[in-house]
Amino acid sequence: MLKHIFTSAVLLWLFGLLGAGSVAVVYSLTENRILENQAATRLMRLHEVLPPERYDNDLLSDTLTLPAGSVVKDRPVTVYRARLKGRPVAVAFEATASDGYSGDIRLLIGVDLDGRILGVRALEHKETPGLGDSIETSRSDWILGFNGRSLNNPDPAHWAVKKDGGVFDQFTGATITPRAVVKLIKQVLVYYAGHRETIFAQEPRNG
After folding, report:
1. Taking the chain (207 residues) in consecutive chunks of 10 residues, what is each chunk's mean pLDDT?
2. Domain assignments of the chain as residue spans, ordered by start
3. Phi/psi of residue 124, nearest 5 degrees
């Protein structure tokens, strides 16, 4: 009886070891593929706000991580820096607004060297379907209205939704979501205007 139990335990251990080994081998074989796919997806999203013909550097490695409190008070911000023949041409900020109607709204905001918006895209959010999700290009062209805007267009006092005295439309039945988006984009533009030279001078991945 004891011999049978011992044998069963050994066999179970061996099967467990083989199973774990198989998982480790499969992971090691697919890890690079997974990372490559993730990088390709991120680059595809970046190209929506930073046209690829504008730069020739490796956008995914020429990045900075700005600490919480620098751009927004409670979240770090990733900055992708675009260069052409070594000269700065544009940036993309990956930033999060924590004051959406249903929580965090993560945006990708492309800005050219002079502070004009090249594009804005919603990367992740939990806003109400049919209302707050109009920040997605698949649902509405609202977010495309930021293209070409800057701190001078409109002036800072009017960087707000119309309900708050600004120039940007809110959604019917939903003001909190567009208000959070407009506020975050303005914060990014203000930070960029005051730190442009520093952003491009820092070594990659500084925090």
Report:
1. 57 59 56 69 94 96 95 94 97 96 94 98 89 89 97 96 96 91 97 96 70
2. 1-46, 53-201
3. -160, 140
